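Case 606 in the screening queue. Each case pairs one protein sequence with one candidate compound; here the compound is 2-deoxy-2-amino glucitol-6-phosphate. For every case the pipeline is the same: read the inputs, emit a complex structure as tokens, and attach any notable structural observations.

Predict complex for case 606.
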Amino acid sequence: MCGIVGYIGDRDLTSILLVGLERLSYRGYDSAGIAVISDGELSCWKKPGKIHALNEALKNMIIQGQVGIGHTRWATHGEPNEVNAHPQLSQSRRVAVVHNGIIENYLELKSKLKKEGHIFLSQTDTEIIVHLIERYLQDDLESAVELAAKDLVGSLAIAVVAEADPDKIVVYKKGSPLVIGVGKGENYIASDVNAIISHTKNIIYLDDGELAIIEKNNYTIKRNGKIINKEIQTVKWDAVISDKNGYEHYMLKEIYEQAIVVRKLISKYLQNNKVHFKSLKLDKEELAKIKRFIIQACGTSWHSGLLGKYLIEKYTRIPTEVDISSEFRYRDIITEGNKIVVAISQSGETADTLACIREAKSKFFKVLSFVNVKGSSIDRESDGVIYTHSGPEIGVASTKNYVAQLVSLYLFMVHLGILKWTLDEEKVDVMLNNLRRLPEQIDKILQQTDHIKKIAKKYAKSKEFIFVGRGVNYPTALEGALKLKELSYIHAAGYPAGELKHGPIALIDENLPVVCIAPQSETYDKMISNIQEIRARKGKTIVIATEGDENIKEYADDILYIPLCPEDLTPILAVIPLQLLAYYIALELNCDVDQPRNLAKSVTVE
Ligand code: AGP
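Case 606 output:
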């Protein structure tokens, strides 16, 4: 994964690199480092831990220089310590490289280089890149990078600086994203536009196999050794500065923003009771002819996809499959018929999801994506896009964007239902009116925070949790379990409630809390039977139920009420107490809720 940034110009190099890294920390925060060339001499500083540690280390230093590169790491090869942090230096310490990606043949190359006398200090795959570059470095840096790139198998976006050729940054892209920011008398490179957007909006998106030589007043892009011209694109959005707005954490702020997000989506996509998706780019006739959807996504976005399947199949009768992206890619998918691959991604940069889009397009599928981050790779590479408009989501655990994905999928389903004539006007009116009531209902749930805090305190010492739900709330069970795992490091598993008796019920004893998602629904009675089975084995039940359900008191150790809404919309409400439960349990355990260990906001390696 990782994020890379680089600058060449006369302004304050260190601050440009550090701010860029902060903005890229969603790509990993295991360590950070910068390398700078000043008066022809290369210097490097790096620290394990979050960018803050590097900031602290550099705060009283005056670093001169006009050329520099920086890196924020999500550890793939080697533990997150200082030696494994990037920039990685060559043996002479005169060449430095930052890398996003994975070199698949690094062991083979490493042993070859070792035989030639190279000594390696780190466990990273990246170190071999810089050794190779130094080995090839004779005249100019770009030729050495080009030769090294030919030896490398895997994914890489790299930026390289060298004392031997001090007035340039050379970058190369294959697999991982990389952009050039074009300025006046200065230029930038970064893994994504947002790292440099406050300095320039003139962006060149590099494609795989392209190498670029970045100088102060110039840049040259090459493919297979030949200079090519690439269009400069002007990005239309501004830097979004996100602060905590008085909340203790970004995650809490984002949980509290959910009603606003739903309102925004409704006002963006609903006009005169009709659904309009401006950026969809697939025309109505094309959509109406679709015979099959294949949704692919990862993590929380995959959970959204699971609900998408229920909704699309129930209301439009179009068969819909849902795959985890890393599985979709390696199965022999049937390509016949009129079909669309749907990608769902908050970041728009998830490597597995992106790889599936490319795979799908190579097999002549059209790709429609639900994306939050505009200008991201998935946004740019999809045939059509529906933006989830949840604004910047900084907390690593997805909250408001999950709700935004569910609402967007719901609106998409309504849109399709109208096109396919499976939904009539009257039914659509009812559905949309129910949707409009959600923001108020979300706010009502958020008023129960004190009650949720108490429940969190009561169960925070539990070693594991189970989450169960049925139908549309089976994905909610998965999402609740994922939130708890990633925030509190407590093991949690989500199951369809009916599956309990096929194995997981063996886990239940008086120490196991089971979160049961049981709002009013077609399967309510079945859920009650499942809850009774849990209670009969002394499991502790925390039940998400519909307001006014007095009956549930008999079966629940603790209850979290959500307002009454149609079953199809209950996942949007039911997930909110689960997000808060995970958040407060994590606080009880002193966990870093915004940046949990081992995670990154955007998973940019496969
Ligand atoms: C969510 O809380 C997780 N951090 C993670 O599962 C995430 O949803 C997944 O990595 C997919 O990311 P994307 O939506 O940006 O593609």
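Case 606 observations:
- The chain has 19 helices and 27 strands.
- Residues 106 and 125 are 6 Å apart (CA to CA).
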